[in-house]
Amino acid sequence: MTAIPRLSIPLPFPALLRTAAALAGAQGGGAEIAAFERAFAARYGRQDAVCFCRARMGFFHLLRCLDLAEGAEVLIGGLHVADFVNIIRLAGFVPVVVDLEPRGFRLDEDDLERKLSPRSAVLLVTHLSGYVHDMPRLRKICDDRGVMLVEDCSQAFAARYDGQRVGTFGHAAIFSLSLLKSVCTLNGGIVLAEDPALLERLHRAAEAEGAASRGPMLAETLKNLVIKTATWPPLFSLTVLPLLRLTAAAGDWFARYQKTNKTVVLRDRLPPVFRERFTAVQARLGMSLLPDLDARESKRQAAGRLLRSLIEPDGKVALPPQCDSADNGYWLFPLVVEDPARLKAALSRQGVDSAPMLLAALSTEAAFAGMGFSAPNAEWTRAHTLFVPMYPTLDETDIRRIAAAIADFQRAS
Fold first, then answer.
1. What residues of the chain score a pLDDT lower than 50?
2. Whole-number mean pLDDT of the chain?
3. Which one is catalytic: 181, 259, 299, 344?
4. Residues 252, 356: contact at Cβ < 8 Å?
5. What is the reported pLDDT for 184?
6. Fewest Cβ atoms closer than 10 Å to its Cβ: which of 185, 316, 366, 391?
């Protein structure tokens, strides 16, 4: 029986090969970047957007362009790309970590209320795995306290709350365009904002960055090609999954290879590679994925809803809470599990690959010790999450196989 890989690269082989060839040429083409920015923004009812070399740099420049008071606090969820703590610090502000709800992926609103202070200026709310927050509630909390709400929609390109797209509830929104994202431009990120004057300042900041170096983008192109080849189902079934089983005791080497942020450090400056411009080559990749984006994401969401309906939570396997009014994105499909390693091994024996949590629990990172971060629920969720396959090319048979494998584990336990 053909195995089901944990992930699927959205970029087709020909696009990746064309990109590798194009990276050997000139990197100009401001008109192509502008066209991609406008096309992306139009999906969210905005006139314009601004691309950066990384989503974290989009957030950095957004913070710098908001005219915040010196030493202002920026609140961020307890599970995130760890480097966002550095981004907040290097932008000149103070990071404050907000815990998540118990056994879930949304912010704990009570903890948020406790951690808001007169110095609070920005809340970055991340729709983790495409699980949507109660956005009207968060917007009201922010408006009542004079805090700017910024949405991180990197894992929720098509998610909605009460029919409204996430990314349109806050004062601004950021999207990662990196590996596995629904719109992938190798590296890259894009910022949406309500205020035209803010967008103009962001455009000036983006244009002031240096020329892009080819090395990192070539490396990212190669990574996409390697992972796409490794997850081709026949090869994955015959070679990759057996290797993962044999080496499981030493850890998940596939996850280590996939992970971009392999170490967490406390930075005293931004790396030079962060101070580069988004390129026309990247814009072409992004534009190529926009025409069928909604169709692909609709398939992903339908698959996520089906799998959720087929799983019977018990003491060993549970599902994260969700809002009744939310249409989640299901960029990933998390299970909250008593013993993730045991479930992972059981699924692997049935040909279903799965993956650990790659995001950091910010309150446990040694690099950030002494910053006073506290998020025990986020720490627990990180340790007890296992992601099963969830992507647009899965069909109903695949989803029912995954559900059956989970049910077999529950019965055997």
1. none
2. 96
3. 181
4. yes
5. 97
6. 366
- Output the six-digit token pair for 7: 């992930």
Q: In this predicted structure, what is the pLDDT of residue 26? A: 56
From the list 121, 62, 112, 51, the residue with the least C-alpha distance to 87 is 62
Determine the longest span between alpha carbons in the chain, in angstroms.
60
344 included as an active-site residue: no
Three-state SS across the chain? CCCECCCCCCCCHHHHHHHHHHCCCCCCCHHHHHHHHHHHHHCCCCCCCEEECCHHHHHHHHHHHCCCCCCCEEEEECEECCHHHHHHHHCCCEEEEECECCCCCCECHHHHHHHCCCCEEEEEEECHHHCCCCHHHHHHHHHHHCCEEEEECCCCCCCEECCEECCCCCCEEEEECCCCCCCCCCCCEEEEECCHHHHHHHHHHHHCCECCCHHHHHHHHHHHHHHHHHCCHHHHHHHHHHHHHHCHHHCCHHHHHHCCCCCCCCCCCCCHHHCECCCHHHHHHHHHHCCCHHHHHHHHHHHHHHHHHHCCCCCCEECCCCCCCEECCCCCEEEEECCHHHHHHHHHHCCECCEECCCEEHHHCHHHCCCCCCCHHHHHHHHCEEEECCCCCCCHHHHHHHHHHHHHHHHHC
Q: Which two tokens stand for residue 291?
A: 């025409």
| Residues 285 and 307: beta-carbon distance below 8 Å | no
Structure tokens, 129: 């795995």
The pLDDT, as a whole number, for residue 259 is 86
Angle at 279 between CA 125 and CA 152, to 5 degrees: 5
Instruction: Convert the pLDDT of each residue in 256-295 to its tens digit.
Output: 999 888 789 999 999 999 999 999 999 999 999 999 999 9
